């Protein structure tokens, strides 16, 4: 069938028009998808709000004797290593004698000088008595210096045990009464404890109601959690508390692992609990966005409605809320949790279905 | 002679007035589609509120393409409705041709008992308002579980008494002797229909296509009744409701809705008039 030129032209225009409209449909759909905020929703839940403190605990030996330095010592040689079992009198480390000998010589010289001055002074009374006192003080210092210094310049184990927390290496300089290492007695069973620090404000609140729990991540990446029994509480100088609990796990203590401690207290049960990410705060006002559906000429569309809420209780993850206008009305509502872009009241949104 | 000229002048004037009245809504829709949102609100805001009549404002104060941007780019829903309308209309037209062409040919050229009765039956059905059959159609579609699907719109519209009547009159004008000659040459009824009757009744078929297009493209009641989801609604529903909502996009969508009709008419304009004429003038 032969077509007239007019028909050919109209056909051509028709094809072009429909092609343009098809392209525009695709483009506008893509633009609409890109510009319409996408939201993930959740529903308010009944439950308890628990306030929690999370911290890392240190694994310690429970029955440990700390060994302190007797004087100002410089270590010249170490004979043991971490975890070694030693008997009473076993050599632990030797002390640099040069510094000690110099101190001893200086003290001897000081005593000699005082002695010479003392005998050279005329029997005139006051001055001689003062010198005598100085000399006696110097002699006492000298005796103490000798007493601090281990026999032969070698420090030996004062008792049998396992060397732990060895802070001794060649060249270490200890001042008097400084802790050098721990000796864990070998007699009887060695016990362990987890120790952590809590602020004084939180101390009574958390421990009075709930039993703390400890957890670690095992080789398979699973979290192993156990409840703790608090063994001791000790207030530190800064007011915080050092809390210790008995070793709760069935496995042997592993000092390389990280142990997390959680303590919590229930703030009560609430009918409308939402994830914290649902709550928006504006100065002292709190609000949430609720997804509503309306029917229009283009079909059903989802839009968000801003609802002002009262914050009844909260922790890091959850918050108990109540709508000002309609208490209890949030149950069953779809509450916006995450958004792809900023939204405001009345915005049309796409609700992302959870897998 | 002078009297004839005067009569012709009056007739011309009358036709011009009629043409202006016919074209005015088109012109008004096109010019208003180039108005900005604020301008539309200023001049027609009272219509949407229903508080007052609007001031007639023909030409835009400032040309704006915002309405076209809205329907062609910002919101895909308008174009989706356009394609919905196009899909339904296309299916209805094709369906009508498939059903009505053989039926009309049989009615026109076969020796049937009570043939006149059937023709009058078609005329009666054609005269019946659409609304009368809506309830029965709904009942049937509900029984077939088709409510809410596009088939609920397409199927009832495929059986169109008007198209059948138009084609019947078109086939009546096909020369019987040509058909008989073809049959003598061994052509089957189906071959005669396809190779003799259809090409000869081409104009009536084109007119039927145009009339079916107008009817299907502008339908409002059936989609409202048979479709559950407004997302499936054709553009005609939006145009019917535009006055109560977004007037600006109502005008631009109106222009968009005119495009296929204009193109179809331009394509079939030659056949359309003679096709309609064949429906009223039967060759003897």
Describe, in plain words, how this protein is organized in 3D.
With 355 residues, chain A is α+β, with helices and mostly antiparallel strands. Chain A folds into three domains: 34-49 and 269-352, conserved putative lor/sdh protein from methanococcus maripaludis s2 fold (Beta Barrel); 52-61 and 188-267, Elongation Factor Tu (Ef-tu), domain 3 (Beta Barrel); 71-184, OB fold (Dihydrolipoamide Acetyltransferase, E2P) (Beta Barrel), CATH 2.40.50. Chain A is built from four helices and 22 strands. Chain A has helices at residues 5-35, 97-120, 126-148, 200-209, and strands at 38-43, 45-61, 65-68, 73-78, 85-86, 91-95, 154-156, 161-164, 173-174, 179-184, 192-198, 213-217, 223-227, 230-235, 241-246, 259-275, 280-282, 285-296, 299-314, 318-323, 334-339, 350-352. In chain A, strands 1, 2, 11, 12, 13, 14, 15, 16, 17, 18, 19, 20, 21 and 22 form a 14-stranded mixed β-sheet that branches. In chain A, β18 and β19 (299-314) form a beta hairpin. Chain A is elongated, with a radius of gyration of 39 Å. With 284 residues, chain B is mainly alpha-helical. Chain B folds into two domains: 2-65, no CATH class; 70-280, MetI-like (MetI-like fold, Orthogonal Bundle). In chain B, 77% of the residues lie in helices and 0% in strands. In chain B, α4 packs across α8 (161-172) and α4 runs antiparallel to α11. Chain B is globular and about 70 Å long. The mean pLDDT of chain B is 86. Chain A binds chain B through residues 4, 6-7, 10-11, 13-14, 17, 21, 24-25, 27-29, 31-32, 295-300, and chain B through 72-77, 79-83, 229-233, 237-238, 241, 245, 259, 263, 266-267, 270.
């Amino acid at each position: 069938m032969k077509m007239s030129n007019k028909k050919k032209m109209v056909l051509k225009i028709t094809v072009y028009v429909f092609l343009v409209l098809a392209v525009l449909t695709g483009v506008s759909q893509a633009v609409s998808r890109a510009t319409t905020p996408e939201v993930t929703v959740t529903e308010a839940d009944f439950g308890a709000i628990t306030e929690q403190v999370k911290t890392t605990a240190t694994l310690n030996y429970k029955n440990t004797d700390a060994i302190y330095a007797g004087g100002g010592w410089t270590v010249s040689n170490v004979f043991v290593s971490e975890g070694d079992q030693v008997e009473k009198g076993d050599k632990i480390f030797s002390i640099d004698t040069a510094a000690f000998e110099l101190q001893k010589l200086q003290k001897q010289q000081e005593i000699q000088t005082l002695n010479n001055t003392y005998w050279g002074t005329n029997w005139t009374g006051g001055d001689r008595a003062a010198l005598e006192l100085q000399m006696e003080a110097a002699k006492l210092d000298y005796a103490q210096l000798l007493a601090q210094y281990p026999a032969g310049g070698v420090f030996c184990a004062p008792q049998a045990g396992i060397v732990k927390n060895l802070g001794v290496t060649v060249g270490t300089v200890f001042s008097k009464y400084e802790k050098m290492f721990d000796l864990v007695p070998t007699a009887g069973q060695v016990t362990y404890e987890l120790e952590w620090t809590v602020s004084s404000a939180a101390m009574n609140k958390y421990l009075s109601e709930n039993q703390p729990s400890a957890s670690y991540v095992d080789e398979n990446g699973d979290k192993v959690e156990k409840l703790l029994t608090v063994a001791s509480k000790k207030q530190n100088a800064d007011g915080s508390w050092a809390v210790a609990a008995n070793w709760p796990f069935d496995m042997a203590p592993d000092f390389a692992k990280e142990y997390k401690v959680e303590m919590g207290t229930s703030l009560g049960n609430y009918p409308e609990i939402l994830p914290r990410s649902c709550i928006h705060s504006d100065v002292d006002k709190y609000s949430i966005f609720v997804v509503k559906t309306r029917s229009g000429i283009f079909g059903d569309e989802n839009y968000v409605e801003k609802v002002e809420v009262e914050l009844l209780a909260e922790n890091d993850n959850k918050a108990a809320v109540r709508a000002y206008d309609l208490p209890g009305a949030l149950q069953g509502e779809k509450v916006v949790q995450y958004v792809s872009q900023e939204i405001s009241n009345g915005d049309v949104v796409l609700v992302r279905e959870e897998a | 002679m002078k009297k004839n000229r005067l009569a012709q002048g009056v007739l011309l004037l009358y036709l011009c007035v009629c043409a202006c009245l016919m074209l005015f809504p088109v012109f008004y829709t096109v010019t208003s589609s180039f108005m900005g949102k604020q301008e539309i609100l200023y001049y027609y805001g009272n219509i949407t509120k229903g508080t007052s009549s609007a001031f007639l404002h023909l030409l835009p104060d400032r040309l704006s393409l915002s309405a076209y941007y809205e329907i062609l780019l910002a919101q895909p829903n308008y174009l989706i409705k356009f394609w919905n309308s196009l899909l339904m209309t296309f299916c209805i037209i094709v369906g009508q041709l498939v059903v009505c062409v053989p039926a009309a040919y049989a009615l026109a050229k076969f020796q049937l008992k009570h043939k006149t009765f059937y023709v009058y039956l078609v005329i009666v059905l054609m005269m019946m308002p659409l609304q009368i059959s809506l309830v029965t159609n709904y009942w049937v579609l509900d029984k077939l579980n088709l409510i809410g699907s596009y088939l609920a719109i397409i199927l009832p519209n495929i059986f169109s008494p008007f198209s059948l009547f138009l084609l019947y009159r078109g086939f009546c004008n096909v020369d019987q002797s040509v058909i008989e000659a073809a049959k003598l040459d061994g052509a089957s009824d189906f071959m005669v229909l396809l190779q003799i009757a259809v090409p000869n009744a081409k104009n009536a078929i084109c007119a039927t296509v145009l009339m079916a297009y107008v009817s299907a493209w502008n339908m409002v009641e059936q989609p409202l009744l048979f479709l559950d989801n407004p997302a499936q609604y054709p553009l005609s529903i939006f145009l019917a409701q535009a006055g109560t909502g977004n007037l600006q996009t109502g005008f631009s969508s109106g222009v968009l809705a005119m495009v296929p009709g204009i193109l179809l008419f331009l394509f079939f304009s030659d056949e359309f008039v003679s096709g309609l004429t064949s429906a009223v003038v039967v060759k003897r």
